[in-house]
Design goal:
This protein is α+β, with helices and mostly antiparallel strands. The chain has one domain. The chain contains 1 helix and 9 strands, in the order αβββββββββ. The protein has one helix at residues 25-79; strands at 82-85, 91-96, 116-123, 136-140, 149-152, 156-157, 165-168, 172-180, 190-197. Strand 1 (82-85) and strand 2 (91-96) form a beta hairpin.
């Protein structure tokens, strides 16, 4: 302390530039490597999670399409008065009575006429596994008109050894088909459908119970 002035003189030390801490090149390389490993792991996780979710979504879509198609076929079959399939089993034809109060065919029964025909038709290659995405199932509301509605837009195919449509004993419609996700690049989703449809307007002798093999 300076006794004359009464001020306290303090020496202020400034840190040397050479004493500052810093990362070495080795530390930077190690940290970068660890960061890259963590990033790569996160990317792989999101990739696998995305693939899994995409596969589940594709499977759900196939199930919905196949189920809706069968339910629609069954709903139309219940109201039909006559059903048949072609030799290939690719076309299912159904006849309908447009006015149950009128006996248009003069057979003494007003509820079994065949005023118009509807069809469900498989378009594609039977038993095809290559180019399966080109196969489709369509519905024709009236065969006298050329308009058709696509029921399953892609991927439908035969089950091995079976026709898609088969009418048994003139009344029971057996429907068998598979649907494949033909557009999948790194995954494969599919669903197989087997179901029956029976017209409510049928002869008493046709009332039978059957079990699919």
């Amino acid at each position: 302390m300076n006794m004359k002035t009464g001020y306290l003189n303090l020496a202020v030390r400034r840190p040397s530039l050479h004493s500052r801490s810093a990362f070495t090149l080795v530390e930077i390389m190690v940290a970068s490597s660890i960061g890259l490993l963590v990033t790569a792991g996160a990317v792989m996780f999101f990739q696998f999670a995305g693939t899994s979710m995409s596969g589940a979504t594709a499977q759900s879509l196939l199930n919905q399409r196949a189920g809706n198609a069968v339910e629609f076929i069954q709903s139309r079959a219940r109201l039909s008065t006559f059903v048949s399939n072609d030799a290939s089993g690719n076309v299912l034809s159904m006849a309908f009575d447009d006015d149950p109060a009128v006996d248009s065919d003069s057979d003494g029964k007003s509820y079994n006429d065949r005023n118009h025909w509807e069809q469900f038709k498989f378009i594609g290659v039977n038993g095809s596994t290559n180019g399966i995405s080109t196969n489709l199932l369509v519905y024709i509301a009236n065969t006298a008109v050329t308009n058709q509605q696509v029921i399953i837009p892609a991927g439908i195919n035969n089950l091995p050894g079976y026709k898609i449509f088969n009418v048994v004993d003139g009344s029971t419609i057996v429907v068998r088909f598979g649907v494949v996700d033909g557009y999948a690049r790194d995954r494969y989703q599919s669903v197989d459908i087997q179901a029956t449809a029976v017209p409510l307007n049928r002869a008493f002798s046709k009332n039978v119970i059957s079990i699919l093999p």
